[in-house]
Amino acid sequence: MVKETIDCKCDAKDIEENKGLAAISYLWLLCLIPLFGKKDSAFAQFHAKQGLGLLVLWVLCGFIMVVPVLGWFIGAMGYVVSFVLVIIGISNVFASKCVELPIVGKWFKNVKF
């Protein structure tokens, strides 16, 4: 279900210097900080793009929750899934890995800014 990416070319120095920024990438709007502030770091950019995908998922869940009853259930489940993906993403950062997140990872890994 979780796949290693081969296009994240990060050296050890890049990873160590940018772990903090990469970790905050998974905290919704904070993904914009490394996305626009650390364009020279492949590691921070990879995780910022994954975090952007989670932000979009979070917003979609909010829109879905407008629909009574069924929307509440689906939206709430989406929030739970996004929270689990946040934990997976942050654990990948501290394990020094560039791993696509399930559901959103494949769509946001190639976004250009």
Keywords:
mainly alpha, 113 residues
Derived from helix and strand composition plus strand pairing, the structural class reads mainly alpha
How many individual β-strands?
A: 0
Low-confidence spans: pLDDT under 50, at least 5 residues? none
Number of H/I helices: 5
Query: What string, H for helix and E for strand, traces the elements in order?
Result: HHHHH
Q: Span from first to last CA?
A: 27 Å
| Total of domains | 1
Largest sheet: none
What Rg do the Cα atoms give? 14 Å
The level of helicity is: 55-70%
What is the overall silhouette?
Answer: elongated
Oligomerization state: single chain
Question: What percentage of amino acids are in beta strands?
Answer: under 5%
Mean pLDDT: 89
Task: Tell me what the structure shows.
It is a single chain. With 113 residues, the protein is mostly helical. The protein has one domain (12-98). 63% of the residues lie in helices and 0% in strands. The chain has five helices and no strands. It has helices spanning 12-24, 32-37, 42-64, 70-94, 105-108. The radius of gyration is 14 Å and the shape is elongated. The two termini are 27 Å apart. The mean pLDDT is 89.
Concise structural overview:
With 113 residues, the protein is mainly alpha-helical.
